[in-house]
Amino acid sequence: MTDNTIDWSEDRGVVTLTIADPGQSVNTMNAAFAASFDVALARLAAIGDALTGVVITSGKKTFFAGGDLRDLLEVDADNAAQFTAFLESIKRQLRTLETLGVPVVAAINGSALGGGLELALACHHRIALDDPHIRIGLPEVTLGLLPGAGGVVRTVRLLGLDTALDRVLLPGTAYRPADALQLGLIDDIATDTAALRAAARAWILAHRDARQCWDDGDAVPGGRADDPSVATTLPTRAATLRARHHGAPMPAAAAILSAAVESTVVDVETALAVETRYFVQLATGQIAKNIIQGTFFDRQTVRSGASRPRGFMPPHRADSVAVLGAGMMGAGIALSAALAGITVKLKDVDCPRAERGKAYAARVLAKRVAAGKHSQAEADAILERICATDDVADLAGCDLVIEAVFEDPELKGQVFREVLDAVAPDALLASNTSTLPITGLARSVDRPADFIGLHFFSPVERMDLVEIVVGEQTSEATLAKAFDIVLQLGKTPIVVGDGRGFFTSRVILARLLEAAAMLGEGIAPASIEQASLQAGYPVGTLALLDELTLTLPHKIYGQFRDEARTTDAQFVEHPGDAVLATMIEDANRPGRSAGAGFYDYADGRRVRLWAGLNERFGPGRPGHDLSELIDRLLIAEALETARCLESGLLRSTADANVGSLLGIGFPLWTGGAAQFIAGYPGGLAAFGARSRQLAEEFGPRFTPPASLVSWPTEPVGVN
Ligand code: NAI
């Protein structure tokens, strides 16, 4: 017996089915729902002529959440047939619902994302509560999937191929009710629950012979894919999609396009079967599993505090923060804190500089007001929280200090000493240093146990990740506090040790140097950029080097070299660094900020790859293939991640995945740098073998660490 998940009530011929899974906080398309839905549908059919209509609504905060992602991770080739049968049974139920012969209305009283909207699409009319927290859409593509419960078929038949693909299925946008209404995803909006109920009943009484448009002639708005006017656009559509993804793996988008197009040239039943086939292909594939693991489960693990020390409850909250340094990072940190409701004292050496930092916040807020994200009054209140100052006395009582002055250990020590007497005696002391060891910086204060690294990413108000760096003397209580503060800021904290470059800088350095090394081998720079994009990185690696400025990785690598030489007798120089040195010292092209790097720039805009690269580093090494370049970039970063896990610098694979996805643009399809190894085609042995092959050809930097033999195929955490 499964628990009933659907409550039944009847009022003068109109039956309301209220979905409320007693076993979970949200309604999902699980076995209990399927069983309850079967019972409800049979009972509806048995009423016969006395049935006037049906309202579907939810007894939970959200309307309906869709498929259970845990179930999806378990789907593989062995149980695909069973999974397909389950999906088909749900689809049959939804078809039964929409062909009952009476009007069915979805009264959407909470978010309807994914399966929730698919259920609503199988109703004849959709009315949503006008609540700013409600979201409506089909976000499956963002998890490497497609809407497999009729979402592709029904949106295409409802809105036409272009709108369904470009506004709903391919972007996966979660719309507010008013926007969903404008788009045609829903039909009406109600101001409150009573109005929602009344509107649903009124619609039923006024539309006794309601039918789905696809059961009424089956025309597709805008035309079927075999209409000549549509058919001629399809090759461009496919090419545009490929171009948008730069050739990186994107099975979900490709499957959505195919399923949508094919669905238009067959009847509804066949279309639903086509959709199922594509869905099962994606669900049994590795890429959807990677993305679900990295972006959903690992993110949940990280945010739920797997790397936060136990205890130290209740969670800490900061009231007022002293941000030292109002430059690029300080200004962004100040804005993020103000957005989270924290009072900010933004201090710089003089008032004009401090005000410049606050002006940055004002500019970003103005843009947000223009985009409708805040009202003017909200933006004013947020800005009001930031006080720009050059006076230490203004920092009195702050319970958090975040330092973001120049990257100079002496200066950083000095600014902490300056403010210690003014701020609260137990204020958390944090540095946003990107490269300096936290343990060393902590020595400049008299309470190093309260000192920690909070490494933000630029632009701070848009980047979700914060790397929390634990120094040798940082206490567990301080780590717990810092973790809570990062969550309070609305960001995602990963916890890392105090090794050189921490986690993210160290891993990205491996990719930057690898790309530079390729250039040194004479590989065409355009091929390196193409390999980067085809691997799934957001920008070419040489372009990224220019953005960061070549001197930065060159300097960090120098620090690694100095450190390694004292401990590692076998130290082998990375050939990429010599290329950076040539670019900086001989060619005087350190990057975009100087107007010249691997690329030429005009008015700050990237124009083309520098023609001199060929002369300096060419002629091209013949016979290289792009897949080898792709492997080198990805594997270089994955191996560095494995070393971070082996050394304990990282505490969990979840931190590794979330950090690499959010912080350094590791390709989404991999699920993160650790999941890339766990999900490598052919398994760990194949990953190890490929690494060793690369090591033979390119050097010991590709030798896999010993721990890879026992690498976890399941996620590992600390607690
Ligand atoms: P920036 O040069 O834009 O700003 C530094 C600010 O500190 C300047 O406004 C300067 O006037 C101020 N300052 C200098 N001495 C001061 C003092 N005694 N008291 C108060 N303010 C003082 O530098 P940016 O880029 O904001 O970097 C700041 C820190 O953040 C550095 O440690 C950097 O390594 C780190 N970081 C930078 C990232 C980036 O993408 N730029 C990313 C993550 C960390």
Automatic annotation (TrEMBL):
Q: Which residues form the 3-hydroxyacyl-CoA dehydrogenase NAD binding domain?
A: 320-498
Q: Does the keyword Glycoprotein apply?
A: no
**Name recorded for this polypeptide:** 3-hydroxyacyl-CoA dehydrogenase, NAD-binding protein
3-hydroxyacyl-CoA dehydrogenase C-terminal domain segment(s): 501-601
Pathway participation: Lipid metabolism; fatty acid beta-oxidation; Lipid metabolism; butanoate metabolism
By its UniProt entry, which PANTHER family does this protein fall under?
Answer: TRIFUNCTIONAL ENZYME SUBUNIT ALPHA, TRIFUNCTIONAL ENZYME SUBUNIT ALPHA, MITOCHONDRIAL
The UniProt keywords, alphabetically, are: Fatty acid metabolism, Lipid degradation, Lipid metabolism, Lyase, Multifunctional enzyme, NAD, Oxidoreductase
The record's annotation in SUPFAM superfamilies points to: 6-phosphogluconate dehydrogenase C-terminal domain-like (SSF48179), ClpP/crotonase (SSF52096), NAD(P)-binding Rossmann-fold domains (SSF51735)
Task: Give the similarity note.
Answer: In the central section; belongs to the 3-hydroxyacyl-CoA dehydrogenase family.
Which organism does this record belong to? Mycolicibacterium vanbaalenii (strain DSM 7251 / JCM 13017 / BCRC 16820 / KCTC 9966 / NRRL B-24157 / PYR-1) (Mycobacterium vanbaalenii)
Pfam families found in the cross-reference section: 3HCDH, 3HCDH_N, ECH_1
